[in-house]
Design a protein that fits this description.
alpha/beta, 9 helices, 6 strands, 52% helix
C-alpha cells in the first residue's frame, strides 16, 4: 500500500466528485490505494488519535482533518516527518490553500477542491511512481503559476525602497525557491532561469 484516503464522511465524495459513484468505484480499483470505509475507517482514525497507528510503507496519506484531534494531528505530523510521508489534510473548514515542505510535504486544502477531477489522475500517477507534486491536487500548472509569482516578487523587490518590505519579499521569494527546488540558485541567475523554464512549460501546454 502506497497511499491511503481516510474519509469519515463518504457522502461528501458523492457530492463533490464529478462522476459521483462512478468515481468512487474507480478509486476503489486503484492498485496501491487503500480506501477504508465503515468501521475500518473509524478504527483507523481512533488509532491515529491514540498514537498507535502503524504506517508501514505508506508514502501518501490523505485525511479529513476534522476527524483528528489535536493529538492525532501532532502524531501524524511527527510520523510524516520521520518517515517522509506526503500528507494532505482536507476539510470544508479550510478556506485557504496552505502548502509546506520544510520538514515534509504537507498540503491543507478545502474538501471541494480536493474532490475535484484532478484527484483520481493524481493518485493514479502517485501509485505508479510518476512522482506528481501534491500541489497538482489544486492546479495542474502550479509550477507555472509560482514561476510567474516569483518573477513578479523579484521585480517588486528591485523597486522597493523600504528595507522591512524588502525583507518580507525576500522571505516570500526564498519559500518559492524552495518549493521550485531552486533554492541554491543565486538571485541574479533566477530571472533568466525562470524565463527559460516558463517558455519550456508554455511550449508544452
Amino acid at each position: 500500500m502506497k497511499a491511503i484516503l481516510i474519509e469519515d464522511r463518504p457522502d461528501r465524495q458523492r457530492i463533490f466528485l464529478s462522476n459521483n459513484e462512478t468515481d468512487i468505484d474507480e478509486l476503489k480499483t486503484i492498485n496501491g490505494l487503500y480506501l477504508p470505509s465503515g468501521q475500518d475507517c473509524k478504527d483507523l482514525i481512533h488509532e491515529l488519535n491514540n498514537e498507535n497507528y502503524k504506517f508501514n510503507d505508506l508514502e501518501l496519506i490523505m485525511i479529513h482533518k476534522s476527524s483528528l484531534t489535536s493529538k492525532g494531528i501532532n502524531f501524524l505530523n511527527k510520523q510524516s516527518k520521520g518517515k517522509n510521508i506526503s500528507t494532505v489534510y482536507f476539510s470544508g473548514g479550510i478556506d485557504q490553500l496552505i502548502y509546506n515542505n520544510e520538514s515534509f510535504e504537507c498540503l491543507n486544502i478545502n474538501s471541494k477542491e480536493f474532490y475535484s477531477f484532478r484527484l483520481i489522475p493524481f493518485i493514479q500517477n502517485f501509485v505508479e511512481d510518476k512522482n506528481p507534486h501534491i500541489l497538482e491536487l489544486n492546479n495542474k500548472d502550479w509550477k507555472l503559476s509560482y514561476m510567474f509569482l516569483v518573477k513578479q516578487l523579484l521585480q517588486n523587490r528591485k523597486i522597493e525602497e523600504d528595507e522591512d518590505e524588502k525583507y518580507l519579499l525576500s522571505k516570500k521569494i526564498d519559500k518559492i525557491k524552495s518549493l521550485l527546488d531552486i533554492k541554491n540558485k543565486k538571485d541574479d541567475e533566477i530571472e533568466d532561469y525562470i524565463s527559460k523554464e516558463i517558455n519550456k512549460i508554455i511550449v508544452n501546454l
